[in-house]
Amino acid sequence: MKIVVLAGGLSPERDVSLSSGVLISNALIENGHDVMLLDLFFGENNKSIEPIFRNKNSDFRYEYKIPEKEPDLDAVKNMLPQQKSLIGKGVIEICGSADIVFLALHGAAGENGQIQALFDLYSIKYTGTGYVGSLLAMDKDLSKKMMKNSGIKTADWKYFVLKNNSGFDDIKYPCVVKPCSCGSSVGVKIVENEAQLKTAVDEAKKYEDCIVIEDKIEGREFSVGILNGKALLPIEIKPLSGFYDYKNKYQQGLTQEICPADIDSEQLEILQKSALKVHNVLRLGYYSRVDFILDENNNAYCLEANTLPGMTPISLLPQEALAQGISYNELCNMIATQCGF
Question: Is the pTM of this model over 0.70?
Answer without folding.
Answer: yes
